[in-house]
Amino acid sequence: MRVFKILLVLSMVLMMTNSLFASKIEATDEYDFSLALNYAFHNNIDSIVLATSGGVYTTVDTAAMVIKEPLTIVAAPGLAEKPIITHSDADSSTLEIFVVCNDLTVEGVVFDGGHAQSHGMKYALRFMHTDPDQPGGQVFAKEGTNIHVKNCDFKNLIRDKIVEPEYNKGHALYFNRPSDKNDPTIKAGTVKFEDCGFYRIGDEAIRLSETEKYDIERAVDSLIVRNCTFTDIDAECIRMYADTDETTEDAHVMLENLTINNSATRVIYLKNNFGSTVRNVIISNSRLPGISRLDRTDFLIQIQRPGSQICCVDTSNITTLDGTDEGTEIYVSKNQGQGVALHTIYGYDPMYADASNMDYTLQPGSPAYFGASDDGAIGDRNWATQTPTQIAFNYTKTGEGVLECDPPLVGRSYAAGTEVTVTAAPDSAWTFAGWGGDLAGSGNPATVTMDAAVNFSVTFESSTTDVADLNRTPRTYQLEQNYPNPFNPTTTISFTLEKAGQTRLTVYNVLGKELFTLVDNKLSAGEHTVELNAQDLSSGVYFYRLESGHFASVRKMIVMK
User: What DSSP letter does each residue of 263-332 carry, written as one string?
Assistant: First the structure.
């Protein structure tokens, strides 16, 4: 009788379209949603419109709902609340809300894995071949499948709603390797999330990390995540691997305008992928990872391979395994020190309206409003809805030196009416040449009043023609992050000395006990590298300290065996 009812309703909708080949149907939440899907796949229908405001679209089928043919699922215009999609299988064995085997577009819905009508789903979207032993037989995932998700929420994805070690896994999107590891067909085309929210996810929110486990060049052609918010994520918000073959083409990856709050320390990990871009991200109020991922506290963001870049990242109230809240430069990691625009790694309070209630609206005085790569707001721009009282302060620099601002520049803006004194401080062997743009002339220091957006340039010129001597002259003391990190058993520590002098490099454990000394003698000015072999150290967190003259600096490293 239930099948007859839904077929009757759908047939009536088709007749109302006055077409024998309708491509769109409306569905209410009173019928089993798997029947609507199957009806669409068997009747040349490519779009399902969810018509019930706040309605729960689910199934009691013991198999996952499989996207077998290209399909678009959208909420009807004007609904007061987003429709909810979940799974209510009778024997509580199904892990996925949707198994994706073909092109899927979803807009304006909520995927709720922990809904009262669900036992607790592990996956919202799982790209994979279906099991041949399941009802309906095997369906092979189409190579090049496109997955586009817009204005959707993913929440409460924790398997069986149980929080235990090695059990509480959950993902909004997961790529599953085939049973035959040599099968190359689990490969998507474009995967795109825009204007989406991810809330309470029991592991990585977006995981495309099976590439190293079977013979395939890349998991996707493109991964785009834009204007999205992540809250309470137990592991990385985004984790993706490329293959280890540097001769093959990697995916186009663009992650931009993300707001991440109350989530694990690691938020983004892109491994072995050339040419990735991460920009305009707010990371705030971080916490330790879920109990099965406690090792993931060694960095905030890591993207690897040449051509990749990180810029315009704000961090606020960061938590690490050892309980410290240190400078951002320690935690934004990269491939051999390349690809991070350090002058755009900020550490200010983004000034949310009410973070404890997941209201991340940027208040009018937030420095985030003009901090992005395009001079817009950092973070998910769906929260940038207030009229800012800040005014943009932009400058470009030519040559070697720094711009000193009084009062200090926070982000890339000042409050309206602020009088700012700017001083051009050239590096050794360089001189200040002059200002340009809105701040003309050669007076140094100079003053500007923030009554409108300011755009100017500062130019430094070399005061020597001996480039070789210039290159040999170190500019400052600096202790670099060891690379690789984590490591087993060897890593390299690099540092620069401004002046020759007695230098000491030592290694400590987390209790502050000195374990051994790597360097303890007089060194010349310039760059130095030391290799550390940790074969006698157990896995864990350690610190290394550099002392030379009046300079001292400490960094953290992780041995992982």
Answer: -BS--EEEES-TT-EEEEEEEES-B---TT-TT--S-SEEE-STT-EEEEEEEES---TTS----HHHHE
Of 394, 460, 188, 163, the C-alpha closest to 289 is: 163
Of 180, 149, 185, 18, nearest in space to 75 by CA: 149
Identify which of 259, 345, 326, 273 has the alpha carbon closest to the alpha carbon of residue 303: 273
pTM score of the predicted model:
0.77
DSSP 216-250: -S-SEEEEEEEEEEEEEESS-SEEEE--S-TTSPP
- Could you tell me if 175 and 127 are in contact, meaning their C-beta atoms sit under 8 angstroms apart? yes
Residues 6+ apart with CB under 8 A from 148: 104, 105, 106, 190, 192
**What's the CA gap between 234 and 457, in Å, rounded?**
43
Task: Kindly report the number of other CB atoms within 10 A of residue 367's CB atom.
Answer: 23
Q: Where are the beta strands (DSSP E) in 389-449?
A: 390-398, 401-406, 413-415, 419-426, 430-437, 446-449
Q: Where does the pLDDT of residue 499 fall: very low under 50, low under 70, confident under 90, or very high at 90 and above? A: confident
Q: Are 512 and 558 in contact (CB under 8 A)?
A: no
Residue type, 150: K
| C-alpha span between 77 and 219 (Å, rounded) | 34
d(CA 304, CA 212): 15
**Residues 239/212, Cβ–Cβ less than 8 Å:** no
Check residue 499 and report its DSSP letter: S
Spatial neighbors of 125 by CB under 8 A, at least 6 apart, are 96, 97, 98, 100, 104, 111, 147, 149, 172, 173, 174
Predicted pLDDT of residue 536: 81
CA distances from 551 to 177, 477, 479, 497, 505 (A): 51, 7, 10, 9, 12
Regarding predicted confidence, which is higher, 134 or 550? Answer: 550
DSSP 160: G
Which band of pLDDT confidence, cut at 50, 70 and 90, is reported for residue 210? low
Do 410 and 348 touch, CB atoms closer than 8 A? yes
List of domains in the chain = 21-389 (2.160.20), 395-469 (no CATH), 476-559 (2.60.40.3080)
